[in-house]
Amino acid sequence: MTARDLDDRAASRSVRKPTMADVAKYAGVSLKTVSRVVNQEPHVRAPLQERVQAAISALGYRRNEAAARLARGAAMLTLGLVMENISNEFYSRLAAAVESAAAGHEALVVFGSYEESADKERMLIESMYARGVDSLIVVPSAADHAWLAEHASLTAVFVDRVPPGLDSADVVLLDDVWGGRAATEHLLAHGHRRIALISDDGAVSSVRDRAAGYRAALRAAGVAADEAMVVRGVFDPWRVAYEVGRLLDLPDPPTAFFATNNRAAIGILQALRERPERPAYVGFDDFALADVFSPGVTVVRYDVTRLARGAVDLLLNPAPGPRRVRVPVELIARGSGELPPR
Amino acid sequence: MTARDLDDRAASRSVRKPTMADVAKYAGVSLKTVSRVVNQEPHVRAPLQERVQAAISALGYRRNEAAARLARGAAMLTLGLVMENISNEFYSRLAAAVESAAAGHEALVVFGSYEESADKERMLIESMYARGVDSLIVVPSAADHAWLAEHASLTAVFVDRVPPGLDSADVVLLDDVWGGRAATEHLLAHGHRRIALISDDGAVSSVRDRAAGYRAALRAAGVAADEAMVVRGVFDPWRVAYEVGRLLDLPDPPTAFFATNNRAAIGILQALRERPERPAYVGFDDFALADVFSPGVTVVRYDVTRLARGAVDLLLNPAPGPRRVRVPVELIARGSGELPPR
């Protein structure tokens, strides 16, 4: 090797990283030998090993860890979780639970939040699919999902709601009708007859089922349903707080509330901060701090890890036919649901 | 066309969807003509148009909307957001804010949560990168991030913490030192001298900076720092509640607490439910319901949308040199930080 060669090498070193081939050439050994030394395989004779190590030092060669890991990253099973609204605690709990369930199968999870927009839901699913994520867990919007059937290689499992237009879909649901009924019966058992219902999107199956449970309990108790006591389509706690105030200002106000989700229960808490009345209320979905208030918030609760594990199990064990898994719910009395009527 | 041909066609229709080519053959026109009719292009003569429409009806042809949309899905700019723990409200708020900031640029966002595991952080980033997500917003773990520099085509911006080992990184930070100092000065101004610090991962720059602000305020007030008043490495509110109880049981207990994150503040709330003492406390990070408790929780708060928008702006406007953006924080007095010493 001439001085000129070395200068050239030094110059080229400054513009690109040395490769294994450079090391082999410099050391005068085969590429296979360099690979063996770099990967610490046995059966390389000591003098050869030393020559390769000297070349590695001289050239400043570094094994391309990044490329090796990147290949592994691409190969890892990645599940997509598509949710309605990540700022709602239900979804952040679900995301953490899916993450944990997937980790048990050495799978990674990427999440997407469509912020109550069915168009964005579809774009998210298609973007994930186009990027090689073909196993999806979806909390579906109320829009038609028939288009999903056209992606033959996509495996999707649905959580919390039945996707409209996809009769063949596997779905993991809560026992919503039972929960709505149990919440309402609990309030009836504590003497309430004017029980208001606060709910969000009535086009979504879980919300509809919780309301159906509420109506069934009233019917069974011989209490006539009063549409003036039913509030639909409120998502934001502040809107809920406004509606609660409005109902309490009626000439014949409710003495109790059934909130069909955590945001509605939080809205009730916010409304009552400003009001003298102490109506009873039961929420659907547990939430952080529900037990720290005084009185504690009585809720219909469930184990979100069962929702997550159910979905991951269905996803990783494909089988024909629509499968439905129902996760049980339970009523946890903490005080707010046991207050008497005025 | 014979009856046999039609039967064959009917049979084949049941096993696969008709294509544009089938429509062209059935109508006896060119594929180009079918394409023009399907895509509602002008300049197709009426009789031809009618023949194509008749063939479309007869065969039950449907345009492959899915394929067209899928191509768009792959083309859409998708940002990756990699976070420490999605079940922490800070991250779900950040995720929603990044989602909203990205929507302003017609970009989609996929999230990943590494659940406090630096290995999983790296796998998530590499999996996203391998799937074509090359614009990343990362809330980094305390591990070395030098490996990221090897992915030349990856653009990453960091949020909330400085990534160790990546001096050239663009970072959007909160004014953590100022916030820690303001919280502590507030408690000092209300007469407290025994002020405990509850914090999580001390290896993370934001936590370190908040603690530095706490120490600076004590020093400026001539109050000697007492290591017995400092709790580090507690993440879970239940662990925090235990530590708060332990400190309150000391012979010379704290009369006030500074919680360096939302989980620590929630842990204090939980601990105080079971205790007779009414120590003052200030939290860092606002959280849902912080204003509904009585007294309300005094916090150091900031606009999470500014963190998100700052990160998206840096990401979409690449420029040389490490850029640091500081988002201001403010102290919101709600009652818990204004309680007097016993």
TrEMBL record, chains A, B:
SMART domains: HTH_LACI. Gene3D superfamilies: 3.40.50.2300, lambda repressor-like DNA-binding domains (1.10.260.40). GO terms for molecular function: DNA-binding transcription factor activity; transcription cis-regulatory region binding. Keywords: DNA-binding. It holds the Pfam family LacI. It comes from Nonomuraea phyllanthi. This is LacI family DNA-binding transcriptional regulator. InterPro entries: HTH_LacI (IPR000843), LacI/GalR-like_sensor (IPR046335), Lambda_DNA-bd_dom_sf (IPR010982), Peripla_BP_I (IPR028082).
